[in-house]
Amino acid sequence: MSNVKPSRAKVQSNIRWLVIFLLFGIMVVIGRYAWLQLVQGSELAERMRSQVGQDYLIQSPRGAIIDRTGRELAVSTMTKSLFVDPNHVENPEELAADLAPLTGKTEEEILEDIRVGGGFSWVKRRMEQSEYEAIRTLIREKGYANCLGFRDEAKRYYPNDVLAANVIGFVGTDDKGLDGIEQALDKYIKGEVTESFLYTDRQDRPILDSIFVKHGYQGDR
Questions:
Q1: How remote is the C-alpha of 40 from its chain's centroid?
Q2: Can you list the alpha helix ranges (DSSP code H) found in the chain?
Q3: 85 in the same domain as 13
Q4: Mean predicted lDDT score pLDDT of the chain
Q5: What is the distance, to the nearest Å, from the Cα of residue 183 to the centroid of all Cα atoms in its chain?
Q6: Domain count, the chain
Q7: Are residues 70 and 115 in the same domain?
Q8: pLDDT tens column, 120-161
Q9: Is 89 part of any domain?
Q10: What CATH code is carried by the domain that includes residue 168?
Q11: How far apart are CA 77 and CA 80, in angstroms?
């Protein structure tokens, strides 16, 4: 009997310490969970979002202006605008030298765009299709995808040149009507910019083909 009692007491002591250890472990897990959710939740969610995809701006074209016979007096088409992320430019001089002949800008002008700093600076807006294709090829060949990208913007055309120009008016670089019909009806014909989130792979390509088609994504940043 004397040998049984100490053994039983030892077992009970071990169980007590095991329960205490388990309770302590549970409290640690709960505390860690609360820290991640309440304190670091927003930061971690944003980090995950930046790793699995990107925000993509979708620009709709400005509405057309036509005469009573249906002939177009003003019409918009979607074009590509080139931007640079100065924070990720490794060699500004080399980048400027590569872009200058393709954009029609001087190397110094492009370096000025880079010197702006921050994460975004326009290089050339509303490019012709040939310029876009040439720069897209350059980005792929030289690995500039981390610092160069494109955004869709509407470009306004007036098929009849100066015909009724004073009545039709014109638009500024931000697609805002500044005179004539363009200004008077701006809120009705102005294009809209909407933002969507795309899940992409490590090369910024949409993962789902349905998203690719839906948003007209071009495979560029």
A1: 24
A2: 4-34, 41-52, 92-103, 107-115, 129-142, 165-168, 180-184, 186-189, 209-215
A3: no
A4: 81
A5: 29
A6: 2
A7: yes
A8: 899 999 899 999 999 999 999 999 988 999 888 888 889 888
A9: yes
A10: 3.90.1310.10
A11: 10
Residue 92 binned pLDDT confidence (cut-offs 50, 70, 90) = very high
Residues 83 and 23 in one domain: no
Quote the domain boundaries for residue 28: 4-39
Tell me the pLDDT tens digit for each residue of 38-60: 887 777 776 766 666 666 666 77
CA distances from 88 to 38, 40, 113, 119, 148 (A): 32, 26, 13, 8, 9
In a domain, 10, yes or no: yes
User: Torsion-angle region of residue 125: left (phi > 0), alpha (psi -120 to 50) or beta?
Assistant: beta
pTM, 2 dp: 0.56
Same domain, 98 and 141: yes
- Say which residues have a Cβ less than 8 Å from residue 185's Cβ, sequence separation at least 6: 177
d(CA 74, CA 63) in angstroms, rounded, equals 8
pLDDT computed for residue 51 by the predictor: 64
Backbone region of residue 194 per phi and psi (left: phi > 0; alpha: psi in -120 to 50; beta: other values):
beta
What count of Cα atoms within 13 Å lies in the side-chain half-sphere of residue 26?
Answer: 6
The closest of 108, 99, 101 to 139, measured between CA atoms, is 99
Burial of 126 (0-12, 13-18, 19+ CB in 10 A): middle
Tell which wins on pLDDT, 170 or 110: 110
